[in-house]
């Protein structure tokens, strides 16, 4: 599994994922599942949707 999520994208996903989990637990709904998926893409630096469309926000290895 090659990383395709990097930098600012990871940070924004982590913030959004945590916020969605906290909100949904307080509201008592099921949106925590989406929050967990978004947070997971940040932690593992991999997004299946990005892979399917050939996108990447991660810097190629060897670039400064």
> Which residues sit in consecutive blocks of at least 5 with pLDDT less than 50?
none
**Which band does the percent of strand residues land in?**
under 5%
Instruction: Estimate the mean pLDDT confidence.
Output: 94
Q: Tell me the span between the first and last alpha carbons.
A: 22 Å
Largest sheet entry: none
Total strands: the figure is: 0
Count of folded domains: 1
Q: If you compute it from the alpha carbons, what radius of gyration comes out, rounded to the nearest whole angstrom?
A: 13 Å
Keywords: Membrane, Transmembrane, Transmembrane helix
Pfam families: YgaP-like_TM
Protein name: DUF2892 domain-containing protein
Organism: Idiomarina seosinensis
Structure described in brief:
Helix content is 62%, strand content 0%. With 64 residues, the protein is mainly alpha-helical.
List the helices and strands and how they pair.
Blueprint: H1 7-27, H2 32-44, H3 48-53
Helix pairs in contact: 1-2
Describe the structure.
There is one protein chain. This protein has 64 residues and is an all-alpha fold. The chain has one domain. Helix content is 62%, strand content 0%. α1 runs antiparallel to α2. 12% of the residues are buried. The mean pLDDT is 94. Keywords: Membrane, Transmembrane, Transmembrane helix. This is DUF2892 domain-containing protein. InterPro entries: YgaP-like_TM.
Q: What keyword list fits this structure?
A:
64 residues, mainly alpha, 3 helices, 62% helix, 0% strand
């Amino acid at each position: 599994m090659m990383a395709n999520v990097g930098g600012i994208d990871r940070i924004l996903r982590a913030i959004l994922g945590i916020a969605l989990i906290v909100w949904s637990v307080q509201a008592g709904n099921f949106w925590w599942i989406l929050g967990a998926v978004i947070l997971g893409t940040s932690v593992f630096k991999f997004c299946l949707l990005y892979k399917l469309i050939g996108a990447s926000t991660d810097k190629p290895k060897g670039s400064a």
